Amino acid sequence: MGANTLTPVIRIQREDFDLAAEIAAISAGRRDIGAVVSFTGLCRDEGATLAALELEHYPGMAEAEIARVAAQAAARWPLMGLLAIHRYGLVKPGDQIVLVIATSAHRRAAFEAADFMMDYLKTRAPFWKREHLADGTVGGWVEAKQEDDDAAARWT
Amino acid sequence: MTQALATSAPAAQARSVRLVYFAWVRERVGMADEQVELPEGIETVLDLVRWLKTRDEGYAAAFENETLVRAAINQTHVKPGASIAGAREIAFFPPMTGG
């Protein structure tokens, strides 16, 4: 079964990523994949008030925690591939922040696994956002949202 | 060290642990990491938090709400009641806001 041999790809990086290249890589040489679901998270400008987001992370634990979440997803759905990329450093409105790709024989598993990955990644991966405002000042740290905890609790 | 101290704690074994702080916890504490010798009687994460709060106003501000700040031992999430026995690295940080 595919899930047994699945090795999730986890990357924590400052650089941007290329969605098309990542989908090509995760699908390369395979004829058994029937579904590729991807989620890309972008930086919003919050009504033109935001100049950038500064993303701080806990090196080592960020990789380890996302790997633990990915292992849970791989155990729960019959996936053929699973990838998560999360950026750190300064990102500007319109820039990509996070990418999750899940592949499977059929769409349902891929949709659900990608959704699960994002819900858990938001509430468990050690990243913190700070706002840099359009007026040139450094704003506060973004506060965690109850709705994100509620979204993650759907899977338990 | 005075004679009184030396004789009152003959078997006390210094436990050294690395503490790391992130985001506004780091800013309030005033440093990203430190190595501390834990006094006796500190058994859980919450014990550690309460001891840190007595050190100065920066720690007191960081841990003002004792259960809001999250903790990880050796890079794994833990609850406030978790034992810190065997911990090499203990991290404190706000609720996560990645994704």
TrEMBL record, chain A:
This is Molybdopterin synthase catalytic subunit. Pathway: Cofactor biosynthesis; molybdopterin biosynthesis. Converts molybdopterin precursor Z into molybdopterin. This requires the incorporation of two sulfur atoms into precursor Z to generate a dithiolene group. The sulfur is provided by MoaD. Heterotetramer of 2 MoaD subunits and 2 MoaE subunits. Also stable as homodimer. The enzyme changes between these two forms during catalysis. Pfam families: MoaE. GO terms for biological process: Mo-molybdopterin cofactor biosynthetic process. Its EC number is 2.8.1.12. Belongs to the MoaE family. It catalyses: 2 [molybdopterin-synthase sulfur-carrier protein]-C-terminal-Gly-aminoethanethioate + cyclic pyranopterin phosphate + H2O = molybdopterin + 2 [molybdopterin-synthase sulfur-carrier protein]-C-terminal Gly-Gly + 2 H(+). It is an enzyme of class 2 (transferase). It comes from Bosea vaviloviae. GO terms for molecular function: molybdopterin synthase activity. Keywords: Molybdenum cofactor biosynthesis.
UniProtKB/TrEMBL annotation, chain B:
InterPro entries: Beta-grasp_dom_sf (IPR012675), Mopterin_synth/thiamin_S_b (IPR016155), ThiS/MoaD-like (IPR003749). Pfam families: ThiS (PF02597). SUPFAM superfamilies: MoaD/ThiS. Signal peptide: none annotated. This is Molybdenum cofactor biosynthesis protein MoaD.
